[in-house]
Fold this protein.
Amino acid sequence: MQGKWVGRCRALAFGVLLTVGTGIAHAAGDAERPIRTDRDGVYEAGPWRYTLRITNRGTRSQGTHGTLFYAGREVPEPAHRNDYYVTPFGKLYWVGDPPLLFGAHGWMPKPRPSDPVGTQLPDPATLARRRFEVRLAVLAPGGDGDKLPDGWIQTTLERVGAPTTLQRGPWRTLGSSWLVVHDSRHYGWFRLRRGKDGPWHAPVLEVEYSGSLETLGRRPETADLLRPSPPGGEPARMALPPQPGAHRLLHWKSDSRFGPFERYVAIEVRAVPTGGADNAR
């Protein structure tokens, strides 16, 4: 009898705690149990923690929200939908966070069916040793640049119906000083700089502008990014995924009595080689 009791205590001490709905199970193999997406649940194993929450249950607006944590912090949004982590609970895919009540949001055990499976993400513990740089290029009507856009820039422009005959200027690394895209009395201003890194060393952009600004090809990062910001006021901030190859395409537009004026800015995240300089302030 005493031997059985000791065995049970060891199973509890070394097993994985899994909370599903209102029930709690203790067993060494629970980390491999498939995640149930039809009920609320909390799954824990080592530094990993995954929560699943059902909203508006039983209605046409029912939604499923998955949140993934590592070492007590929520993992960053990756560069692409269906990028995934391999966790003790199986693969968890980033399916996006659409501004809709229904459907899947966040991290899910199955990829978004309308998109190809993405890239396996490195263990979040490795982000503590990585640094990233941000570079940008301005796209403008012919004559202001040196190359036609290609790759992901061209694809994004085509997808949103924007002009594809823009000229791309040279790539420039973004630092802590303001990089001025435009500043004039008639059309206003638009400038960017690198802010202080966010959690997981995620690069952060700080933006000041008049007129309007939007992120093309995806939902805006933050509502603040769509509000004009006066010079000297608090700049808008946008976090970028801490992942080489992450990119954004911004569209700035200003109207005046001389007519509309617009610029596009392509932004890319790149890894800084080991021992390289850190551009963050």
Remarks:
- The two ends are 63 Å apart (CA to CA).
- The CA atoms of residues 171 and 276 lie 19 Å apart.
- The chain has two domains: 2-126, 130-271.
